[in-house]
Amino acid sequence: MQRCSWPGNDPEYIRYHDEDWGVPVTDPKELFAKLILDGAQAGLSWITILKKRPSYYIAFDGLDPEKMAHYDAKKIAWLLENPGIVRNRLKIEAAVTNARAYLELRDRGIDFSTYLWKFVDYHPKWNAFADKSDVPAFTPESDAMSKSLRKDGFKFVGSTICYAFMQAVGLVQDHLTTCFRYEALREADKHTDWTSVFNR
Fold first, then answer.
1. Which of 9, 37, 40, 90 counts the highest number of beta carbons within 10 A?
2. Comparing C-alpha atoms, which of 81, 119, 117, 75 is closest to residue 99?
3. Domain residue ranges in the chain
4. DSSP bridge pairs for 126
């Protein structure tokens, strides 16, 4: 079985690649949670965050924006002492800021899933890269997403972070064409009525 090379031999990384990475996500809260985790990755390797992911869900109340939006200085101080997460004040405070920005969008009648998927015209963008060196770090779509998120009050959402997020949640498909997941996800895509998913 051939797969993308980036998981290496780490069983947890391989499981993430085989079962999670690139699978389209349309649930607003799940998208929010994954965006927070990608923001936490900034300057670090993804495997670091992946291994801490269960602790993030515990420490941040399931990464529920409605709960996180009410975090106060005491809660932030507690998070800064939590060894299960990345104890970076800027990243922790950004997560709280992003929860509040998420709720502000919702209060304006904007569904977070629709908000994000519009950058790929409400359908996964399929790339066809045969070598990992061909995969970009950012694209015009991730630039646009980053600019929009920052405008709406989000932090730790630079274009590179946004592109990694887009890859992870299936907005763009960047499994290499030689990877077994490429065809599996391609086949699933053929049987998905994206017009119905977004009521368009």
1. 40
2. 75
3. 11-197
4. 173
